[in-house]
């Protein structure tokens, strides 16, 4: 278990438990990739309503933030592995409910948003604490790179297969099949997680750690929290819009699967290169390049929403995203491991990290709902996406102190 900054001077190799954690994470990603890409399309086809998707996402992020904060006590004082497994099982329950409700799901969007938020909160809180304990400064970039590769590999194959299944079936039969496949994969992830060892966490959970830390006069967490919120601003809206724009433009789940396959292939290559070669001393420059590239890619959308233009945007985003996410994630977790005191309170600091991300996600969805309730013209959508999509630059600016400390 990681105990101090000095302990972090370790081998870059990953042990068996860390590889097993990657497998659990990979199965969770695959399960979501099977259906997650098409869930928004499924809701859209039934409702034709951007705002309904916005409300679903808002509820999900709000419940995710609340779950992070409340489940922190369980993870620190109880069994974090049980929290991880509960998150996976609730995700399975989510797709079971979608299967039962079928097209009536749009009438229970509030319920789906709540369940999805609780599932994601339980899983990602436990996963991030376990990930922190299993990695160190020397191998954290490698772990993040491998995690990105697994996600990209799943994106290359899985959504394309799902799109093919949906396109070959009549009515909603294809959707029912992919929801069942997601359910089965979540169960497989739970089974594999049984082989992970639980790691004891000492101390009592500090409910007010966020206010305590941000109230300190010279804490790096103020700027890091702002950087995380800026990162969350982009994640939320783009998670809704891009797949939906591809489907609206093409009217084909198979074309959406093709889009995801191509962009995920680029992501796979980019994560492999960045994860393998990016050194801590290069994080600052690499992250700057990533933020600029992500913002420039959005300009392609001002040409129009044709499939080719969306593909150019998707490839550009896939190419530069690892340069942003790997330094950002590794630097924040390095900060958590920088002192013995912060390591002892690693659960609280993981919660602070997730609350920062969700603060940005919630704010961006509120702006999405406000903007789209007033105007949904292409120019307004493009300007909105450009503004929200450029927030990684703000993340880079707020991360300067932390990025410089890695030199």
From TrEMBL:
GO molecular function, one term: transmembrane transporter activity
Membrane-related topology note: Multi-pass membrane protein
Keyword Transmembrane helix: yes
Keyword Electron transport among record annotations: no
Keyword entries, A-Z: Membrane, Transmembrane, Transmembrane helix
Transmembrane portions of the chain: 20-44, 50-71, 83-102, 108-131, 143-165, 177-196, 232-250, 256-274, 286-305, 311-335, 355-373, 379-399
Domain of life where this protein originates: Bacteria
UniProt-annotated location(s): Cell membrane
GO CC annotation terms, alphabetical: plasma membrane
UniProt-recorded name of the protein: MFS transporter
